[in-house]
Design goal:
Helix content is 60%, strand content 14%. By secondary structure, it is an alpha/beta fold. It is elongated, with a radius of gyration of 36 Å.
Length: 631
């Protein structure tokens, strides 16, 4: 159980060993030769630190004491000092080299991890992003990867250096005095036990801190996105209370973790000082008693080695917290990477096609004919081609975001090629859900959806979505020029095609009034543009894709009535010859639809033209005559 004050979202790591193994695959997998060079540098650097302590014995016993007795050894001493100084200088150079190499390696590893993480994120279904805060997802790329940077560039070299130093020092101590070595090791066992105890306690708090930090980032991101709503409804105090709760959760986990981490160094340093004094007393007593043949040089050198032994042990203990934090961050990263990608068993693809001399539909290769077809391979090895028309039909479709919460019930509808189908109904009736099923953001629980008489589950998702144009109520513009944002709908579109699409959407005039026209750079999701202008660009983006099926999800809800009239004329041109699904915010915009579907709590309760539904005087009649807006 987590201790008092830990994050309420605390959970223990599931597979620490597996996480460490995967992390090492990233670290060592592509950098074996580099790490061999680092190990060589670490060995020389560690040896240079220890060799001076070993040299102290020779300095006192072989040079200083004989010189005090009158021996002339200055030239020999100078040669020895020059040799030890050169080796220590080499150690300094090697220390610089391994630090520099590890800094580069750490960034390369993080580059690969971020690439893999982002690439996998692109394969995740929409459901993942609907159920995870964007701030927490961002935290994987910032806070969690930063803990890995610290571990790779600092902790791992320090761990190797400490282990190498311990081996060299222990070997030297055993050669000098096995008895004092045993005493020193017994005292250092106490040091290790204390360090292990503190590290085991702090480990859970460091994991909780990473989780709490992700939650706090998610809350901040949510508040930034909704700041206008917060201020409109005077919700500032409640927002601050929510932030205080998240911040307090992070404070409790982080302060406890840091308290334990900061406690470790002074505790272990004091134990090390006690060890140093105890060894000095024991060594002095043994030397005076003539036990073990200890000399003054041996005792001085051994005491220095004792310090050299305590230092890497302390460093090992201190790096444990960094490693724990990195493992906590790595586990969160690998959890994202292990999320189930969007499943796609489709095998029917969209190809460029043409009619041959016999009137048969065949693939056109790279020839742009303006005709698209579904390429359908069959079990007997044959291929059939069906021209893309945009005929969409639902047959007894049931759907729920969870098995226990079915939101669509027995939905049957059809939209013939070129028809405009409008969905109306109160919020939560299932309008947007139906369009999410058409592009397979979610898969149905029961029933069938057929597209040009092909089961939609057989169509490869990327090809299916390529045949659909979508204009959403919430516009997302990306950093880049206006031209880049329009071209997002068709990456190989020419400038002329993008301009024609903008004209079709009636966006051309306002774009030409921008400082640099189509080359005006947009930042911050189109900050500086009105909501209506942003929506016009998104409509142009859909237009340049020139798909046979359009989904307009309340596309004009954020546009004023005057602008809507302008946009509607462009959209009418855009919708010509296409199958169109419209989710209506204003009922006045759906009057010219071929069919209007009235939804209520996931059921279709009415279908017909505007005139026929008005004549029926049912739900649509009540909505239309009672208020011209649904929400």
């Amino acid at each position: 159980m987590p201790g008092r004050g830990m994050s309420r979202n605390y959970r223990k790591p599931k597979q620490a060993k597996a996480t460490l193994k995967r992390l090492f695959d990233y670290i060592f997998g592509q950098h074996k030769l580099t790490f061999i060079a680092v190990i060589i540098c670490l060995v020389i650097n560690s040896a240079s630190t220890s060799v001076f302590s070993i040299f102290l014995k020779s300095l006192i016993d072989d040079y200083i004491e004989p010189m005090l007795g009158g021996a002339e050894l200055m030239s020999e001493l100078a040669t020895a000092l020059l040799g030890i100084g050169s080796f220590m200088l080499l150690g300094v150079v090697c220390g610089y080299l391994y630090s520099r190499i590890m800094a580069i390696v750490s960034q390369k590893v993080l580059l690969r991890i971020r690439d893999d993480m982002f690439a996998h994120m692109q394969t995740l279904p929409i459901k993942y992003f609907d159920t995870h805060t964007h701030g927490d997802i961002m935290s994987h790329y910032t806070n969690d990867t930063d803990t890995l940077r610290q571990m790779i560039s600092q902790s791992i070299p320090m761990l190797f250096r400490s282990i190498i130093s311990i081996v060299i020092v222990l070997a030297s101590m055993i050669v000098m005095s096995p008895l004092l070595t045993v005493i020193c090791l017994c005292l250092n066992m106490i040091n290790l036990l204390v360090a292990t105890k503190i590290a085991s306690r702090s480990r859970n708090y460091f994991i909780a801190r990473q989780k709490a930090l992700g939650d706090l980032n998610g809350y901040i991101e949510e508040m930034i996105n909704g700041q206008k709503v917060v201020q409109v409804f005077c919700h500032e105090e409640k927002a601050k209370e929510g932030f205080d709760r998240e911040n307090e959760s992070l404070f409790k986990a982080a302060s406890t973790a840091d308290k334990l981490a900061n406690m470790m160094m002074p505790v272990m340093a004091n134990i090390g000082q006690f060890t140093y004094v105890f060894i000095a007393l024991i060594g002095g007593a043994l030397a005076i008693g003539g036990v073990g043949g200890l000399t003054l040089g041996t005792i001085v050198s051994f005491l220095q080695l004792t310090r050299n032994l305590n230092m890497p042990i302390n460093q090992l203990s201190m790096q444990a917290n960094s490693v724990i934090m990195a493992l906590a961050g790595a586990e969160r990263i690998f959890e994202l990477m292990d999320e189930e990608p969007e499943q796609d068993s489709g095998y029917v693809t969209l190809v460029n096609a043409k009619y041959d001399e016999d009137g048969n539909l065949v693939e056109a290769g790279n020839e742009h004919t303006g005709i698209w077809a579904w390429k359908h391979p069959h079990h007997d090895g044959t291929l059939t081609y069906t021209e893309l028309k945009g005929d969409v039909r639902f047959f007894d479709v049931d759907f729920g975001y969870t098995p226990d919460n079915i939101v669509l019930h027995n939905i049957s509808l059809y939209a013939k090629p070129g028809q405009k189908l409008a969905f109306v109904g109160h919020t939560g009736a299932g309008k947007t859900t139906i369009t999410n099923l058409i592009n397979r953001f979610y898969d149905i629980a029961d029933g069938k959806i057929r597209y040009d008489n092909i089961n939609i589950n057989k169509i490869k998702k990327s090809d299916l979505r390529r045949s659909l144009g979508v204009v959403l109520q919430d516009v997302n513009l990306f950093t880049g020029t206006v031209m880049d944002n329009i071209r997002y709908g068709k990456l190989d579109a020419t400038d002329e095609e993008c301009i024609e699409a903008a004209k079709l959407a009636n966006a051309h005039d306002f774009i030409m009034m921008l400082p640099n026209g189509y080359n005006t750079v947009l930042e911050g999701d189109g900050a500086g543009l009105s909501q209506g202008q942003r929506q016009l660009i998104s409509i142009a983006r859909a237009a340049v894709a020139d798909p046979p099926v359009m989904i307009l999800d309340e596309a004009t809800s954020s546009i004023d009535t005057r602008t809507e009239a302008i946009v509607q004329r462009g959209m009418d041109q855009l919708m010509k010859g296409r199958t169109v699904f419209v989710i209506a915010h204003r009922l006045s915009t759906v009057r010219n639809s071929d069919a209007i579907i009235v939804l209520d709590h996931g059921h279709i309760i009415e279908r017909g033209s505007h005139e026929s539904l008005i004549a029926e005087k049912g739900k649509y009649y009540q909505l239309y005559t009672g208020a011209f807006e649904l929400e």
